[in-house]
Amino acid sequence: MLLISLGEADAAEILRHLGPKEVQRIGEAMARLDNVPQSKVESVVSDFLTTVSDQTGIGIHNDRYIRGMLNQALGEEKAKTLIDRILFSTNTSGLDTLRWMDPKQIAELIRHEHPQIQSVILSYLDTDLAAGVLAFFDETVRLDLLMRISAMEEVQPQALQELNDMFEKQFTGARTSHTAKLGGVKHAADIMNFVDGAIETQILEGIREVDEGLATQIQDLMFVFADLVEVEDTGIQAILREIQTDTLVVALKGADTELQDKIFKNMSKRAADLLRDDLEAKGPVRISEVEEAQKEILNTARRLADDGEIVLGSGGDEMI
Questions:
Q1: Which long-range contacts (CB under 8 A, 24 or more apart) does 267-274 make?
Q2: Which of 10, 27, 46, 129 stands 20 to 30 A from 206 (CA)?
């Protein structure tokens, strides 16, 4: 409400300092707005002025992309102007611009590059976006790229700069000299967490045929739906607040008793009883539908973890 009330130019200037993840969440909120009363807008602006009077700056960091949501919220023409101002600001490098693009666009952009360049780019992207890009390559290419990512440890600054410059020939932006530690088995596992179930199985089986030890390493590092049983109760409660009951019912059709009990324990008695009734009344569900629902919940869990709101796992890591 605040950004829309400010007008396109000022909103674009503010959004330029946010990363793709923040812009995506704001875009989703914009899409839900409908016939907001003037009094509500005035209240929001007043609250903002009160809050900002005690602030000294705005945090800046990059995460994910949001072209579709702004199109939906503001219309294609207005969204295009806004996105262009965000993407092509002086603070956006060639590689960073990719983080704002659609997975299919990125796949087409890098399709004819050398596989090593493709694997560096996928390692640079957020894992869920990289998984989306992988879906547009055939099985053999996906397997090759995941194995290259697993074997990667770091990229020399000069090589990363040259790659950045290559994209800056297509996108307006500033030069960057920052180095990055990219790839590795953990990064490959993180990408696999976001890959579609059928594709995930294909890739793991392909890797296992070539290197069984690597496949086992990747699988051990992947966070799957059953691992939610290790999440602390406060984390489960935060996840439950973010998901729809219908999605939860379908997802739990494929869960074991221990995980179901974990979910029931973190709900009110009335809500838990209703969920049990829904599960009992739910007929047979396709495995693909169960996997899709579980992926949706896992995506929510990873987003909350990225935001620092929950810890995935038992939270038993030692503190120093």
A1: 267/240, 274/245
A2: 129
